[in-house]
Here is the input.
Amino acid sequence: MISDKNRPGFDQKMTAEEINSRPIASYDGVVHIIRTASELEQATRVLCRETVLGFDTETKPAFQKGEINPISLLQFAAAGAVYIIQLKHVRPSEQLGALLSNKLIIKAGIDINQDIAKLKNNIDCDYKGFIDVSLLAKDAGIKNFSMRGLAAVLLGVRIAKSMQVSNWARSTLLPSQIKYAATDAWISREIYLRLRK
Here is the structure.
């Protein structure tokens, strides 16, 4: 459990100004974009050997009332790389379902129940092994629960959210979208690992 509680985020909620004063961080490791069945098979084989994965999804924003868009991307951050699955190009596989339902592989993210509820429309499986790090943060006495807040409180960094409202259903992702999507999955894993200590 976290021992150093004499800092912003524990005694009181970290302010936007305090968060924005932190140095910006982004994922700069290996990123695999998954667009074919063979790439998905190879990726799930690697991911199923991990014990802790950062997890996130991206969905094309809806601007019309009643408009609901399906999930466009699944992101998994492993120890050595991030895997971004473009659901527009590849159908969910049996192996992907096995990964999502494996209770021995932790899949850590923020507001994860919303992601799972949307994913159930795409992938029919028994979702297990998912951990919402914002709930762990509450148990640890942390006052900030968003991804940006937890990154600032626990890791001392700031993550950019400028690409959040972006067309995630694009056929080819922009480099800035790839960086954003990879960072979200990676930072979720880092937050979980820090909380676990």
About this structure: The first helix runs from residue 16 to 20. The chain is about 35% helix and 15% strand. The first strand starts at residue 30 and ends at 34. The chain has a mean pLDDT of 90.
